[in-house]
Amino acid sequence: MGFDTNKLEWLRAPERYMVEDGRIEITTEPGTDLWQRTYYHFRNDNAPVLQMETEEKFFSFTVKTDFSGARHRFDQCGIVMYLDSENWLKGSVEYENGEFQHLGSVVTNHGYSDWATTAIPAGIKTMWYRFSRREDDYRVECSQDGEHFTQMRVCHMWEGGGPIRFGVYACSPEESSFTAVFTDMEITECRWLAHDGQAPDEE
């Protein structure tokens, strides 16, 4: 299956961006982020998001991100599924300092975010992500070469059983700006296979 950039729609388009076949560039603006309540006790819902809508219940979306321009704490870019301000998920690399950065994912259900992370070297400047849907359950994976993917998270989205929107985002929560580049975008049959272990409970 192909990935048609003509189907993408902006939520909060940034001042500077480029969208063409096979390549997207987003230049972030200072003070932009996605977060809801948990731990930090603030809500920030102003990051630019570029998405398409689908009713397909089983698929995978893959994209390569280049964040070599990130130089300031919390600069980030990656994949996103943004349903509304209180229900969304994202996967990204978030710059921390010259030694390390955070590879992680955030799941926000009913207005509360969580953040699962691992530290990776600051020298990593590109990352592939694969976002997979199986009805109202989702998986986020990452890869440094676009071939071998590692699971980052499996999650349930309480409002994610119907039509959804998914795509890419970039933001700079503090006083900074960089240009995030997205390439190698592809939609395929679901690469997240049905579970072959313990049988589901009867309902």
Polypeptide structure, described:
By secondary structure, the protein is mainly beta. It has one domain: Jelly Rolls. About 0% of the residues lie in helices and about 55% in strands. The chain contains no helices and 16 strands. Strands 1-6-15-8-9-10-11 form a seven-stranded antiparallel beta sheet, with no helix packed on it. A hairpin with a 4-residue loop joins strand 9 and strand 10. The protein is globular, with a radius of gyration of 16 Å. The termini are far apart. The mean pLDDT is about 95.
List the helices and strands and how they pair.
Layout: E1 9-11, E2 16-20, E3 23-27, E4 34-36, E5 43-45, E6 49-54, E7 58-66, E8 76-84, E9 87-95, E10 100-109, E11 112-121, E12 126-134, E13 137-143, E14 150-156, E15 164-171, E16 179-188
Quick summary of this structure?
The protein is mainly β and 203 residues long. The protein has strands spanning 9-11, 16-20, 23-27, 34-36, 43-45, 49-54, 58-66, 76-84, 87-95, 100-109, 112-121, 126-134, 137-143, 150-156, 164-171, 179-188. Strand 13 and strand 14 form a beta hairpin.
Query: SSE order, as H and E?
Result: EEEEEEEEEEEEEEEE
What is the CATH topology classification name?
Jelly Rolls
Estimated share of beta-strand residues:
over 45%
Give unreliable regions as ranges.
none
How many β-strand stretches? Answer: 16
Side-by-side strand order of the widest sheet: 1-6-15-8-9-10-11
Using the 3D structure, state the CATH architecture: Sandwich
What is the mean pLDDT?
Answer: 96
- Rg value: 16 Å
The description of the largest β-sheet is: 7 strands, antiparallel
> From the helix content, strand content and strand pairing, which structural class follows?
mainly beta
Distance between the termini: 35 Å
CATH class: Mainly Beta
Tally of individual helices: 0
Proportion of helical residues: under 10%
Number of domains: 1
Name the overall outline: globular
